[in-house]
Design goal:
The longest helix is centred in the last third of the chain and has 21 residues, at about 220-240. The chain has 8 helices and 10 strands. By secondary structure, the chain is an alpha/beta fold. The strands form 3 sheets. It has a 5-stranded parallel β-sheet. The protein has a 3-stranded parallel β-sheet with strand order 6-7-8, with helices on one face. The model has no long low-confidence stretch (mean pLDDT about 90). The termini are far apart.
Length: about 260
Amino acid sequence: MTDAPLTIAGRAYASRLLVGTGKYRDFDQTAEAIAASGAEIVTVAIRRVNIGQNPGQPNLLDVISPQRYTLLPNTAGCYSADDAVRTLRLARELLDGHKLVKLEVLGDQHTLFPNMPETLKAAATLVKDGFDVMVYCSDDPVQARMLEDAGCVAVMPLASLIGSGMGILNPWNLRLIIDQAKVPVLVDAGVGTASDAAVAMELGCDGVLMNTAIAGARDPVRMARAMKLAVEAGRDAYLAGRMPRKFYSADPSSPAGGLIGS
């Protein structure tokens, strides 16, 4: 089966791995890890990283070039629809009318679980305002469908809590979201290691977004390479179609006929 590229808001991408820019030792390590990941879309927390809003301070855009990467401004740290909308309007001004954004409206400072009523409210406002909205959400198929109906260009359900590294805790819900969606579905939050990313892709996700799994590794650059390969392998496995599970039924991989002594 020939694979089609990941297409978001009308633009095609060869890589299905999206990465963040937070929690690295410094900007040099950030740039090296992102390059090793092969990612083409890089998400930036407008409230936490300087991309020009703080003149005189180190600017992420000096090492993550908008000419090389598609920047994805996000609303990490926002707890209301109004704050999220205000943050992304600022990002649009800083990035010369940039439309592609990642919306997240958090509901709890401890778990960072999304506030879905506020997320839906912000999504409707941003879509009406001309943004192309990729949206972090709970793994609730009904909420995901509502966000798609509101005009979001991609839905991004959590696999487990942000920064937890717990992997995919509810694959059944993810499959329900994938099976119904007409826009890309990307796992966002909870990936801890390469096998988690591969499982997400084997389930049929269109991509995976991660930050802490790479930045929090002992060797972020090597983990970035591992994640790149895991996403590619998981996608190939999904397209190939796994063998059927056969409980209590052995099936030798070598021919059973013509054995010596038989």
